[in-house]
């Protein structure tokens, strides 16, 4: 009988990840390689970053794109497409623990994980106010928002709607999010 592979410790994961050419997410000792993204995925994430960065300049908030991990629990680390943290004490060099906004651009390979596992795990973060899922196949955005009582609501936006990011005080149009992806 074969013995199971040993689980990777958080310390070993973080050390290996610092020197890895491939990004890996970490859940309970298991490591999952991240696939490359499509052109549409990259453009959408870039469009949103390009609008968030100047908006947040001069504030206590910082925006990170795809290569910054978020530590959800002691044994869970994800790479969201974009994350914003507004806590100056959230200053670990290789991961953040206090995001107020997380945005994922959906892809065929990650959509189920983004909608289920990540949604449930991200909602355990006290600091998180908004979790946004952006479709790359159609002009549709879903925003999960935590209210003052800690309850989560969902809003599904279409082509004619604006995305209001209350956590950072910014409104984005679908034309801005999907610029150079769909002919508007």
UniProtKB/TrEMBL annotation:
Putative restriction endonuclease domain residues: 10-174
InterPro entries in alphabetical order: Nuclease_put_TT1808, Restrct_endonuc-II-like, Uma2
Pfam families associated with the record: Uma2
Gene3D superfamilies assigned: tt1808, chain A (3.90.1570.10)
PANTHER family documented for this protein: GLR1098 PROTEIN, RESTRICTION ENDONUCLEASE DOMAIN-CONTAINING PROTEIN-RELATED
Record protein name field: Putative restriction endonuclease domain-containing protein
Source organism per UniProt: Planktothrix tepida PCC 9214
